[in-house]
User: Which sequence fits this backbone?
DNA sequence: CTTTTAAGTAACCTTGATTATTACACTCGT
DNA sequence: ACGAGTGTAATAATCAAGGTTACTTAAAAG
């Protein structure tokens, strides 16, 4: 399976913002930590803004910061804000309707996919951004 | 998100084989139901063979059939046999090691991803191929 | 009010993965 | 031996994502 790395980048971005504890961070600085282009970060931040997770200012001395405490942001929210479509794909061509299986397999698959995706999101919801930061800080201390 | 549809196709293929209850089905016939190329189906069948889910014969009058009862095949097995890599991706470029978050975010993400993927597979494991067939037959009866 | 900083955004390129397609060798039953 | 059908390689066609450049807009600072 091949998926986008938007979720990984979003968690990274928010972790940096949480680490800065309220100081605004520019897209260029974030891009430096993630090692990518500032425009990629800005596109990601737009999605996070719409989800109400970050608060971004334009102009001189601007940048982004979390709009909530890291304790109150869970990973499922982050996932949903940056990953628009479903994890599972079906073929672009429709199955053969003349086949007894083909004519209704898509409905059966949809039930399966929805359930699996929900299970995944419930698991993600168990972890907060604060948990992630705690692990990052612990790991940094060990090193 | 961009994912493969191998899992969807694999479930479809196995559902057709289950529907045929032991009769061998050719890759061309399967391709007809799924509306794709026989070679795609053969490649999928190779993975399902390795996982011990199907039994394929070559030569005249050949084809594939399930190697076990549909009741004893669950969707997590199917998923693992055809989807090699992990569901979640990280950026191709490594994060900036000089950043306190960047230098250890990958480890933190790995824990998160592994947990979420396990949750998803546990959910898939709850459904068997027999369950899928039952839904397909019920849906066909209604129509 | 001008300058400067940085976000918003459009346009385009590059890359990589996946499906699709063609072609051919190999097996096995008849 | 023949024919049906799988195994497999090579290649093309698609397509989405990330990356890049360039320009516009907003807001603070002087």
Assistant:
């Amino acid at each position: 399976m091949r998926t986008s790395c938007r979720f990984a980048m979003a968690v990274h971005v928010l972790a940096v913002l949480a680490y800065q504890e309220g100081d605004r961070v520019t897209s260029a600085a974030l891009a430096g930590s993630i090692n990518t282009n500032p425009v990629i970060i800005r596109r990601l931040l737009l999605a996070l803004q719409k989800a109400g997770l970050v608060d971004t200012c334009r102009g001189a001395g601007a940048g982004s910061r979390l709009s909530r405490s890291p304790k109150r942001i869970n990973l499922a929210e982050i996932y949903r804000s940056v990953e628009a479509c479903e994890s599972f794909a079906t073929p672009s061509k429709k199955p053969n309707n003349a086949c007894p299986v083909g004519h209704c397999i898509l409905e059966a698959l949809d039930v399966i996919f929805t359930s699996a995706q929900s299970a995944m999101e419930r698991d993600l919801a168990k972890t907060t951004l604060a948990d992630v930061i705690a692990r990052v800080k612990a790991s940094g201390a060990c090193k």
About this structure: Chain B touches chain A through 60 residues (CB under 8 Å).
